[in-house]
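Researcher: Can you fold this with zinc ion in place?
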Amino acid sequence: MAQTLEIQFLPLSAALAGTAVVLAGEELTLGSSTRGIDERAKGALTKAARAAGFTGKPRTAIEVLAPTGIDSQRVILAGAGRAPNELDRLRLGGLAFAQISARKAESASVVAEPADLGEASAEAFAADLALGALLRSYAFKKYRTRKGEENAESETADGLQKLLVHCAKPDAATKAFMSRKALADGVFLARDLINEPANMLGPVEFAERMRDISGAGLVVEVLDEEQLKALKMNALLAVGQGSARPSRVVVLQWQGSKSKRAKKLCFDGKGVCFDTGGISMKPAGGMEDMKGDMGGAACVAGLMLALAARKASVNAVGLIGLTENMPSGTAQRPGDIVTSMSGQTIEVLNTDAEGRLVLADVLWYAQDRFKPRLIVDLATLTGAIMVALGKEYAGLFSNDDRLAKEFDAAGEATGEKVWRMPLAKAYDKLIDSKNADMKNIGGRYGGAITAAQFLQRFIKDKGTPWVHIDIAGTAMDSARNEINQSWGSGWGVRLLDRLVADNYEKGDK
Ligand code: BES
Ligand code: MN
Ligand code: ZN
């Protein structure tokens, strides 16, 4: 993380910075201290709003320059709409940040005092707004040496260091912001890992980065190739055998539940640090994007950091399979048959369908060792999921209707939306093989589904609730929005955190 925006909560009465954002609800309704600002400015804000046809609708804003009677050189009126929900509040924070950033201000105030709080408390409103601004502020600039200069490819100015959030209950907001800051740390970790180029972040470096986050209270184990061989993770190892860089599996444990013996939630991530396709090589165009083929792993890492940093009341395990898929004299060949940790044999007909090989062993290991209450895997698994769903929704596959519904709700709440896809015997048949128990590709059609069917063959006990999320379309280069401007979006950290908070922490406090 290059530079993080500092956020401070202050009372509504505190002096405003040179650039100030104030909120207007639908039909230009103002909170009482915002009304006070308008009055001191002799009605300049409301007059300007009328002149501009600004009515407080979400995603709209106007700027009022040098209003008389107040210290700020500019006041930005931002539309808060009617009864904003949590996601609206984050987006509003993102809008506020973007408005400030576009003006290259070095310090700025946001008056988090809407006329209409919706269902939120004053402190939750301010804290959500701050989180939205923080998420929007992220930019990956680690390798740009001429930092201050204009660059058409990036939105954010380096200028804004500190954001002052004025609100009714600054102490309560400061406290409410702590768990949100933990979440943002998790999202930023995921974004950083995805954005990092593959020469800098291979399996070994990724694993080292996981040791660095153990300070948050996570127990971190790194399994090297010798240990992976002893565990018979041959499918995972086969993917990495063409690379000069060794494979790794990382296990991150968070024990936050009151009951040490409470069943664990397992989260598995595909961590292919670079996917050339191997001997079944990908075409050159766009191959650089395959530095993000560890998006599932990054999401799991970010989630585990967030859970630990906010001291979630849950026992959770993150399992990350790290490899690099390269063509070389030692690479696996199309037609090779490998015996996975489960004992099932796999005929590798396409070395570019490697993510499922990695996950087959990591999923098996997770169940074998932890006997989890549920298991979730995330993977940038198929181009086919983008053909089906584009870049707005991730594809969700599950053997459990209740868990799928919980994900649906968490997706709606966070804006990280999932769309359930089918699993069925007829699809499963497509990966039967003459020469082994299964092959690693189906036919021409339904590629995201046959990939999911493949993974399901590694869910041991059919009663274990399992979800697979194909994030090929959402983890990287997804549609930029109010709270994300980064190529690596960190998609899924907020979704999973919400799933855990809403369904697996209650009754454990
Ligand atoms: N990592 C890719 C999937 C991918 C593609 C993710 C584009 C993000 C953007 C995966 O390993 C892959 O290559 N899948 C193949 C499977 C095929 C060979 C059955 C694909 O989708 O083409
Ligand atoms: Mn591939
Ligand atoms: Zn891949």
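Model: Folded with zinc ion in place. The first helix runs from residue 32 to 40.
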